[in-house]
Amino acid sequence: MVDRWLSFVRPRLLPERCVLCGAAGTAGRDLCAGCSADLPRLNPVQGEACRRCAAPLPPSSAGAVCGRCLRRPPPHEAAVAAFRYEPPLSRLITELKFNQRLHLARLLGQELAEAVAGTLAHAGGEPPQVLVPVPLHRSRLRERGYNQALELARPVSTRLGIPLAPSLCERIRATSAQTDLPASRRRANVRGAFRANDCTGIRHVALIDDVLTTGHTVAELARVLKRAGVRRVEVWGCARAAAPS
Ligand SMILES: [Zn+2]
Ligand SMILES: [Zn+2]
User: Rounded to the nearest whole angstrom, what is the distance from the C-alpha of residue 19 to the centroid of ligand 1?
Assistant: First the structure.
């Protein structure tokens, strides 16, 4: 309990420190310039990632959409990921998710906000009306004590001035972790797992998640939101893992 309290309070008391090497942070971030340069960033504006699912694209590819999305377009219109899911970034996400290191959400959320801001400035158009963190089932929330997607969404909301709507969707069925299942069973695992609450007046939503993998979870949420009347769904993830074959 004290640990959890400290992890909430510490980031508000101490100056920025690099979460990777402990040096002083730069530009108001918990990251030094050297470690920042080493992070595996994805730049969708430069065509490094698919604009529908955020999968990294081969360097030579001219297209903005990957083959998988061309063959079978996902229900969401766009996706942005700040990073490839690779070390040392993947280690930070694991620490945030499983080891109660909540202060990491500040840095990771700020990085996600910058990636999204760059994409929005490039693509133009209206930003989403609300941010919806991918919900956890109440049993998982009880066990972990927090939803890492909500913690990541907070700095994004502050930076972009888009309100959070964490209760717009609920996870009504506890599911196995997608990463514990073979690719073939992941879609069925999340089918019927979510419910949308009243979406009156909401046309455009961005879902926020920590890691995007095969995308079945966010695709299922996008379907549920669209059935509830939402017209456009974007997916913003801190990191994009390569899809398992
Ligand atoms: Zn550093
Ligand atoms: Zn794609």
Answer: 7
